[in-house]
UniProtKB/TrEMBL annotation, chains A, B, C, D:
<protein>
    <submittedName>
        <fullName>NAD(P)-binding protein</fullName>
    </submittedName>
</protein>
<dbReference type="Pfam" id="PF00106">
    <property type="entry name" value="adh_short"/>
</dbReference>
<dbReference type="InterPro" id="IPR036291">
    <property type="entry name" value="NAD(P)-bd_dom_sf"/>
</dbReference>
<dbReference type="InterPro" id="IPR002347">
    <property type="entry name" value="SDR_fam"/>
</dbReference>
Length: 249, 249, 249, 249
């Protein structure tokens, strides 16, 4: 099976989308989990390994170029013979909803760092590997970089300025990467998650009247990420949105 | 199996997307094929029936309200106990690329009729059925209306005015339907097909330098339509694009 | 003064944008007013003529090609020596806000006719004249076609399906015309009017909490149309939005 | 004349848009010019003062919060009795067109700093002043913040990734500011300049076949900025595009 020769890497795992994506991709690939703190990835790695998959975590801060470089050196040592099939960028803190005159430049920097600087560093490390997979190997599916976006990727709402700055920037960079690397066989896709994700952290939130399905099921998000990965190069999606059926948009 | 109680209908079958979508959905549902001429659907119906699926065609002109009403009355007679799981609107002629001062109002009408008037009629007939499936039955997947769009759905290029008029209109109507029927449990999605589809008709066309994968494989398009259909209501996609990896955009 | 040799035509005059645009352009040009009923234009023509401008009305239904052709033949007889400087398409009825299953195809047709078919006919008659002005004469400002859009031009809201269909179509056609005729020196611009216009008909409407400036002042809209007309060809705007400062968007 | 009580500030003056905007607004207001180097503003200030206007420059790096704060303290000392009528953010270096794997994180930072961090700092200093003008004084026109964008504000082209990141971010932040401060009476507008501006630096560039009007005349850009400033609050434009008539888009 081709998947034995390939692996996936997910940056930004925790209790929501990142965890579900890791579990979904682990059905086909060994999965490397990146997070700033071991407690964000250790349970997920255990869960995957227990289910017969293969996973390990690396502590890394994607906003720091050195940290990302070090992470990929560590991956190379751990998986010397494997090629990268899929890279998912799911980092994105810096979510401050405040009147503009109450935020300060460090809020902006937090958003830019975790969103666009992080994607930049992650893409610098993963795209050479994805290109190599595309050109010199025979992956089952085209090598893929998937980027998690949000409502704020396409809409700058009042009091979301610093978050929108980071998310718009990610979308712009992602589009540029899609246009540069698509013709080289690497699929770059951007997913606009428009709603609240159903995670332990949001369990108590009353969203969309509390109806079932009113929050995004992260496993469903992961299924769409997997679908993106399986698209053949004759039919790439660059962008799709995902939202609960009752979400206003 | 739930699919025994449900069926799918595809309007606009021929040699490309419509055929592939019909074949894909026929793996799970009986499929009804609508086209203006029997020669457009008869081979596809035979192919599906030979493969152990179930399909039949009905001659209908979606731009004509009476014709669409009659088609769904005929479906009801043929499949009295089945509920509608998925409706795909894939009609869209009226593709005249001409300097604006050389087109005439009949070119515009041809585009509006096959694109937006047809969708209107098809949606008037299918949405009550999809709503009924959503609320009183237990479909495996949320009932779905999928609409085929094109580059001209989001871009009015020079000399594509009448085609863009029809395609923009379809997108506007589709968005409106998504916002009205999504909260009622019916998934309405719009797919922007941005490139030339690989069909017998386009076989000889030199597209994107003639590279493999330079045209959209209709089977790959169909796979994305199927993915849309399978999305649970906590995670609906309203719009996605599909294009060959080498396509400029 | 160059304006003595040129005229402007406004399709769709009544009590709002059309009237204000006519008055504004009448400061520089003789203005021809098109409307389906004389009562829509007669007062405006009188008002302009009383103020020392020059204006007359022609009864025409822009959705009917023959009617539009006849109108421009009548204009030619009335203004045999004048060239067209600016054409404004401000027609757009078909505004039915209803649940989709309560509208019927005649609602759709009403929207398509007054919006996109009307623009098509108007553009077929005016673009040859605007091109002629651009290439063989020396207008003060580049010959201009300005099209009135609405919120529904870029957003298909629930229960606005037929209206959105017409408005999206207009936007698609307008973009296409801009891309084809811009390089030939004709400026085609689309204006998204996002809010309620302050007219006698809307006087009693409580909009945006009833605050002053909560509805669009049609004279302010007209000022932006005039600005578009005065843009030199090195710096054309294709699209702008206009909304009250308190409007949610 | 009300303008005696008000002033305008332009960040990012040099030989193109910033200079023309300063000259245009100087017809009505004293103008403060911000640039990182005195040679960028000194000639413009002289030119305005010679023509009977009033202008002075302040050396400031908008990407540095302290530098911006200091600049506005200096303005307050120089113009203690004047209120801010208009603030224009026209900074935006970081324009590196390179294959993604040849750029590094300092290219990204340069783009983010000059584009979105600079706008953030500038907006933090100017919005309180604009708000004060809107609420406690009677400006002739609604107080205005105008932001210069580019093609890369809405399109991430191949090899433009770092520039697009900065420009998308600016657009997202600008939208957010428009939605927060519009209802408070401050007009925030974003201008997409889609083409090459005709400046001494670009004089030799062969653009659009070298035709006259193939580059954007910065004086024409300035005229549109002025139009935005004069819009009454019943009719604000949030975004418009500007491009040469022959520009492909």
């Amino acid at each position: 099976m081709a998947s034995k020769s390939f692996y996936a890497v997910v940056a930004g795992v925790g209790s929501g989308t990142g965890r579900s994506v890791a579990l979904r991709f682990a059905q086909s690939y060994p999965v490397v989990l990146l997070a700033r703190k071991p407690e964000s990835y250790s349970d997920i790695a255990s869960e995957i390994n227990k289910q017969g998959g293969q996973a390990f975590g690396i502590t890394a801060d994607t906003s720091d170029p050195q940290s990302v470089t070090a992470a990929f050196e560590a991956i190379k040592k751990k998986l010397p013979d494997k090629k990268l099939a899929a890279a998912i960028y799911n980092v994105g803190a810096g979510f401050a909803i405040k009147p503009f005159l109450e935020v300060n430049v460090s809020d902006l920097d937090a958003s830019l760092n975790s969103n666009v600087r992080g994607l930049f560093n992650f893409a610098q490390s993963t795209l050479p590997l994805l290109l190599s997979s595309a050109t010199t190997h025979t992956p089952v599916y085209p090598p893929t970089l998937i980027i998690t976006g949000a409502t704020a990727s396409i809409r700058g709402s009042a009091r979301f300025g610093t978050f929108a700055a980071g998310k718009f920037a990610v979308r712009g960079l992602g589009q540029s990467l899609a246009r540069e690397f698509g013709p080289q066989g690497v699929h770059v896709a951007h997913v606009i998650i428009d709603g609240v994700i159903d995670t332990p952290r949001t369990k108590a939130w009353e969203v969309n009247g509390g109806v079932e399905g009113g929050k995004l099921d992260p496993d469903a998000i992961a299924e769409s990420y997997w679908h993106l990965h399986t698209q053949p190069r004759s039919s790439f999606t660059q962008e799709l949105d995902l939202r609960p059926y009752v979400e206003k948009f």
